Structures
1.
Amino acid sequence: MTKKKSTKNWLKKHTKDRYVKMSISSGFRSRAFHKLQEIDEKYKIVKSSNTIIDLGASPGSWSEYIIRNYKSKNLIAVDKIVMEPIQGVHFINGDINNSGDREEMKKIINKADLVLSDIAPNITGIEDVDQAHFFEIFESISSICSDFLKVKGILVMKFFNGSSYDLVKKRLNMLFNEINTYKPDSSRSRSNEVFFICIGYKD
Ligand SMILES: C[S@@+](CC[C@H](N)C(=O)[O-])C[C@H]1O[C@@H](n2cnc3c(N)ncnc32)[C@H](O)[C@@H]1O
């Protein structure tokens, strides 16, 4: 298939998608809004969390979900791509792998109750390469948890099911009391995407 034709097919499927339609009609920044909504409805992660870090936050629909549904949260959003401002969200334009950006985060956050990560590497389609990239992201996120997550805190992290799944789950089991793997209805069925809902960060 030519690139033009495959882009046209993607656009056709995308605009037919009921979650895309719902996002557009509700004025949300992206269909990702519904993923966090489903995760929160099932695991009730946001209500009891006062300080929240949203990693890979742009264009901003997860932060938008939190601000629209909950009052008085201390919300810090981080992304290497600039995010249009959302009132009540402190945005840091940075890369989670960059130590300077991590220092910026330390200036404004002490400890968080909840760390969210919707970060995905650029997918190459080469399984080993993609899984290695996801593993690197996992390592950065566990280091962020070690710096910022409170004991008993919660981590929600996107992952792509593949060869490093078992290893990552084993490592998460060492860090948290309870690990759940969840695929929201709003996550495209043809995507390998899943979310780890990790509850009870260990001392
Ligand atoms: C799927 S999008 C997130 C969508 C977002 N949750 C929302 O609801 O609008 C993934 C984001 O991860 C960001 N990202 C990827 N690698 C990153 C890194 N190393 N540091 C910071 N952000 C990163 C990308 O720039 C992209 O905006």
2.
Amino acid sequence: MTEPDYPVWHPFTAMKTPDAPIQIERAKDCTLYAAQGKKYIDAISSWWVNIHGHANPIIAQRIAEQANQLEHVIFAGFTHTPAVDLANGLLKILNHRFTKVFFSDDGSTCVEVAIKMALQFWTNQGIHNKIKIIAFENAYHGDTFGAMSIGERNTFTAAFQKLLFDVHFIPAPHADNLEEVKEQLRSLIKKGDVAAFIFEPLVQGASGMRMHQAEHLDELIAMVHQEGIICIADEVMTGFGRTGKNFAIEYLLNTPDILCLSKGITGGFLPLGVTLCSQKIVDVFYSQDKDKTFYHGHSYTANPLACAAANASLQLLAEEKCQQQIQNISASHARFKEKILNNPFVKEVRQTGTIVAFDLHTKENSSYFHSIRDEAYHFCLNQGVLLRPLGNVLYIMPPYCITEEELAYVYGVIDKLIKTFSARY
Ligand SMILES: Cc1ncc(COP(=O)(O)O)c(C=O)c1O
């Protein structure tokens, strides 16, 4: 029970809960060490951020070195090597599909930047009627007001509903609805007021690891691009190897104009977000005109410690060992998927790269507030595994350093969960 005098207010958690938060004292690689010798395998990379595991010594060392050199400097009128190196490193690993990198603080703020950049792209050209955004149903892009507006409206956003701006929502594409989705998109584009189309490429994370095919998404991007509308790929979750390639957009033929990255960018050490844009955007902002300036920034923009962490993380990602682990985890997940595919207690088993997910199949409809959620969460914790089900959706998204034995243990706990719960639900 969280006591009334406990001073901290936790995110996405009722203020009064039956369970006190678990105190973690240290962490190493895939293991979280709690008080009284209890330990947990972190099978979700702690909110999808720790791609190289916890307390990675190389990232830790680079942050320490940077802290002794330059901890922070105002980023308007000043610059520093860690930020420039990171921008160059990101542009290079993305094969120069993008031209400039704008820094912010986290996933929500890099999405806010993308929305504002896309809207101002039009006003900078004297076009003032392009003000609508198209997004996918069930999208999640963050918790700031713009990010909430372009996401699924639900219990999370209900208190703010009246203040969120109007967005056109279309279903994510699948083989069986593709023509219908294209038709919806066509009629929205025809209205002539669409500024941008934003999507989580291949995997819609927070709404339950809903997956779609690159070729279907490509068709939508092509339609939108034909009308000159700005495409924004939100790779806050899918970026940095999650989907089996370094970025989900590498599966696409059509390159978006704007890319949002955060989460894995610093390997989970420090908060950082970046919004990359293509030359098409740069061309419209490249001016000394004060009215065409992008007036956005945060106090900690391009914080040197965060940039140093990100540079180290990017270097680790590029190493053969890490790339091989991404393939190993993907192959392992594929075998696990085959194994549970026909179990009647699971449905919609799906996988993209290092993410495997499925719905627990009960009489109750799938939902974030499904009654099995808390029980499933505690069952896994009691077995020493941190999995944080999204309602009745269970998924694994481990740090890339997870060992074969650890991964086998996680699959084993899920097998046990399926056996135990199928008898009761
Ligand atoms: C696709 C996507 N975009 C944006 C966000 C928001 O990121 P943050 O929680 O760092 O604000 C998330 C968070 O889960 C996300 O999955």
